Amino acid sequence: MGALVAAGITGTRGKDKDTARDRTGDLRMDPRLFKAAPPLSNKKLVRNALRHVCLAGAAMRTQLDEALTALDAVAPDVATVFVILFRENTSPHKYRALYALVSGDGGVDDADGVLVKIHGTGGPARVGLQWVDATMKYDSGQREFKPLATSGRLTPLTAAVTLVSKK
Question: What residues does 163 pair with on adjacent strands?
Answer without folding.
Answer: 132
